[in-house]
Amino acid sequence: MAKLKILEFPDPRLRKKAVPVEKVDAALGTLIDDMFETMYAAPGIGLAATQVDVHRRFLVADVSSEKNEPWVLINPVILERDGVEVSEEGCLSVPGYYESVERAEQVRVRFQNRDGEEVEASFDGLLAVCIQHEIDHLDGKLFVDYLSEAKRQRIRKRLLKDRKHRVEDRVAAV
Ligand code: ZN
């Protein structure tokens, strides 16, 4: 297994729309394992392929505190949305920022699991929020898109500045 590099906002690659996965094969399985390793190490509760610069429609998630309830959703499609929930969201691609976002409280999703079988399942609570957030990534959308333009620009500037400092620190340390 290998840890993958997570793209960070405002990287334009986060805006690419992912294409459907055509074949659930061993190579995809390896990528899924690497994404779980990357997500758990971050640490995070969800990771979409887009975030590791793979523009195909699949995501991994695990919102359990024991980190033993992994979900793999390949080619996910939201069939139904129910209720409204506002919760604080963060994102591994927007490190250090947490903002309130409104989502459906419950979603019914059709997807393929890692064996390539077609599954329909309902999700609620944190897992429902997480899955909606990750499916947005596959469409090139980020949680900061739900915020005001001014707030999004502020986060963008701050992250670019932080990254520049990080690069300068690294140069200084050599
Ligand atoms: Zn995210």
Describe the structure.
- This protein is an alpha+beta fold and about 170 residues long.
- The protein is built from three helices and five strands, in the order αβββββαα.
- It has a five-stranded antiparallel sheet with strand order 1-2-3-4-5, with helices on both faces.
- It starts with about 25 loop residues before the first helix and ends with a helix.
- The model has no long low-confidence stretch (mean pLDDT about 95).
- Bound molecules: zinc ion.
Radius of gyration: 16 Å
Helix content: 25-40%
Q: In what order do the strands lie side by side in the largest sheet?
A: 1-2-3-4-5
Compute the separation of the termini in Å.
29 Å
With helices defined by DSSP (H or I, 4 residues minimum), what is the helix count? 3
Helix-strand pattern, N to C? HEEEEEHH
Q: Report the mean per-residue pLDDT as an integer.
A: 96
Structural class: alpha+beta
Strand content is 25-35%
pLDDT < 50 stretches:
none
Largest sheet, in brief, is:
5 strands, antiparallel
How would you name the oligomeric state of the polypeptide chains in this document? single chain
Spatial shape:
globular
Q: Which distinct ligands sit in these coordinates? A: zinc ion
- The count of strands amounts to 5
